[in-house]
Write a structure and sequence with these properties.
disordered C terminus, single chain, Neuraminidase, 8% helix, 4-stranded antiparallel β-sheet, 47% strand, mainly beta, globular
Length: 337
């Protein structure tokens, strides 16, 4: 006589094991999307290359073959990359300067004029922008010409356009995001609402964080349509009347149809983590979750998101880690444990 109760229990147990196995496989597949590639801070990404610094060495990581090329540079910070050029802030000589590094020839050149301890370079094509002593500077690498183009800070560049934060140029507003046209040398105000800061540009689109609202809201202006939209601010207040959606604009980046940002509080507009906003669909997606008050620095290029994360917040280790996320795989709401 066959014991049907035992068979049923065995079948249920087997089904449960299969279910658990599938969950583990799914979790492993999702976890494979995020990979630690090194230790340091200030990562940037272009094409198949990721660059970051640990303060002593500049790391150049090749996404194709996994090789990590190291460039000695004591006192290095804020690296950026475009094509075969790296730029970063350097104080190894005891005096602030910017380094321009040619990857194929492994040679360095230096920008020493109008550079201070806060200068953070951005590069696009053969042009570099940075700020020093409340002024914005532009250098053409190919011609070695340098000029002051505005009064402000935090500049970014795309092709022939430079955007920066200014508090003195527009007589109609105290604080503005300004856009400078390299060809015409004309300037225009992009935004003067709240306290716009940390501008980034790609194509015709400019994004910034509204520091007046606790670094909480990211806005985007499209020069082709002359329209401004909110990226992260969906509602003004929570059910108790408190403003929320804060702490998302401490580090932002844009490339093509993607905006990436970090969020370090848990509120009605999302949990802490690294997010990507799809400009075409208007949707925000959590790509990697972590505890509150963790600071990250996401950057994006095509389907690759990189960020630095301070491990002191999560496991008391005295180090910062660099992570990489492959967005070409099916995105999942990944959570750091």
């Amino acid at each position: 006589m066959i014991n049907k109760g035992k068979l049923c229990s065995t079948a249920l147990a087997s089904a449960f094991l299969v279910f658990i196995f599938l969950i583990l496989i799914s979790a492993a597949a999702s976890a494979a999307q995020v990979m630690k590639v090194g230790t340091g801070y200030d990562p940037a990404v272009y094409d198949n290359k990721v660059v970051w610094t640990n303060g002593v060495v500049i790391h150049l990581y090749n996404l194709t073959d996994g090789t990590d090329t190291k460039v000695s540079s004591a006192g290095s910070s804020s690296p950026d990359i475009y094509d075969n050029k790296l730029v970063w802030h350097d104080e190894s000589s005891g005096t602030p300067r910017l380094v321009v590094y040619d990857i194929p020839t492994a040679t360095k050149s230096y920008i020493t004029q109008n550079v201070d301890q806060y200068s953070k370079p951005a590069i696009h094509g053969d042009r570099i922008v940075w700020s020093a002593n409340d002024s914005v500077y532009l250098m053409n690498i190919s011609t070695s010409t340098q000029a002051e183009i505005g009064n402000g800070s935090n500049p970014d560049i795309y092709d022939t356009k430079v955007v920066y934060y200014s508090y003195s140029e527009d007589p109609q507003a105290d604080i503005t995001i300004r856009m400078y046209d390299i060809n015409t040398q004309e300037k225009a105000t992009v935004s003067s609402y709240g306290d716009p800061n940390i501008p980034r540009i790609w194509g015709t689109k400019v994004i910034w964080a509204d520091l007046y609202n606790q670094q909480g809201y990211i806005a985007m202006y499209d020069a082709s349509t002359n329209e401004t939209i909110d990226v992260t601010r969906q509602l003004d207040t929570d059910p108790d009347g408190n403003e929320y959606g804060a702490s998302t604009g401490t580090h932002i980046a844009i490339q093509n149809d993607k905006i990436v940002y970090n969020k370090c509080v848990d509120d009605y507009e999302g949990t802490p983590g690294v997010y990507v906003y799809n400009i075409t669909t208007g949707q925000n997606t959590l790509v990697y979750g972590y505890p509150e008050d963790v600071y990250t620095t996401p950057e994006v290029y095509n389907n690759t998101i990189v960020w630095g994360m301070d491990r002191n917040y999560v496991d008391s280790e005295d180090s910062n880690d660099i992570y990489l996320y492959n967005f070409s795989e099916q995105p999942g709401n990944l959570t750091m444990r």
